[in-house]
Amino acid sequence: MSATLTAAPPVRYPPGDLAIWIFILAELAVFAIFFASYAFARMGDVAMFNEYQATLDKGAALINTLTLITSSYFVVRALAAIREDQRKTSVRWLLAALAMGALFLVVKSAEYVHHFGEGVRLSSNTFYMFYLSLTFFHFLHVVLGMVILAAVALKTHQGAYSASEHTGMETGGVYWHMVDLVWLILFPLVYVMR
Amino acid sequence: MNTVMNTQTAMRPCTRVYLLLVVLTLVTFAVGHFDLLSGSRALVLSLLVLGFALIKGQLIGDFFMGLKGLRGPWRFVILLWLLIPGTLITIAFTLAG
């Protein structure tokens, strides 16, 4: 009987504001269409896709994947810290996550500079059209995610979140995880699978 | 002290998941980097790599986004999303040979 009384009620809704989840689902739907379009467009000229895929820097993509995974983990640590009312620790983890996000942008930008220097454009061929548009669309999401994380870090520093109320941090966190989630599919699809 | 212990205990599954994500990422990179995706095994290894990505996505949804343990449809929202492009990509790569 006492076990029944003390058991936690079943949770039906995900962490964070429900509105961000609707937004995330819309974003994920767009990326799903992008991924499927890439895969089916590739059927038209597999040899060409494989040839130009070989020009991509897999090492840079590996660094970026590890960067985003690590950044996501840091956000989880920030949330765990604020749940224990450790505000300063939480801010430090958020700043570390932001630093990882910045590293992603630097590595990705270096890739773009290299490709543009080689004369690669959206109109070069279908593979590069997908590569540039897919990765740049994701790049913009990283930028937006960093703006959100920076705002969350500032509010945490100002004392807006605590162990009892941290919905805003959860909301920013799930958006950042979505950015990571999308890259986890994009990396093998565009850089590795052939 | 208790607070530190609670945080560490709560973080343990997420730390293990993080390490698993890193390992699966390194395996994915190795498959591409060492040019294992050539010849007759290209399709099988490509789909294996895609499978790793789907597992990684589900781990992010469950442990990082906090969907593990939810009741109701939200529990499966990331899984559903992963399965849709995952199935379409599998079909397209299989048909392309």
From TrEMBL, chain A:
It comes from the Bacteria. GO terms for molecular function: cytochrome-c oxidase activity. The keyword Calcium does not apply. It is found in: Cell membrane; Membrane. The chain crosses the membrane at residues 20-41, 61-79, 91-107, 128-154, 174-193. GO terms for biological process: aerobic electron transport chain. Keywords: Membrane, Transmembrane, Transmembrane helix. PROSITE patterns: COX3. The keyword Transmembrane applies. GO terms for cellular component: plasma membrane. It is a multi-pass membrane protein. Residues 18-194 form the Heme-copper oxidase subunit III family profile domain. Pfam families: COX3 (PF00510). PANTHER family: CYTOCHROME C OXIDASE SUBUNIT III, NITRIC OXIDE REDUCTASE SUBUNIT E. Belongs to the cytochrome c oxidase subunit 3 family. This is Nitric oxide reductase NorE protein. The lineage of its organism: Bacteria, Pseudomonadati, Pseudomonadota, Gammaproteobacteria, Chromatiales.
TrEMBL record, chain B:
Its main location: membrane. One of its GO terms (cellular component) is plasma membrane. The keyword Nucleotide-binding does not apply. InterPro entries: Cyt_c_oxidase_su4_prok. It comes from the Bacteria. This is Cytochrome C oxidase subunit IV. It comes from Thiocapsa roseopersicina. It holds the Pfam family COX4_pro. Signal peptide: none annotated. It is a multi-pass membrane protein. The chain crosses the membrane at residues 42-64, 76-96. Keywords: Cell membrane, Membrane, Transmembrane, Transmembrane helix.
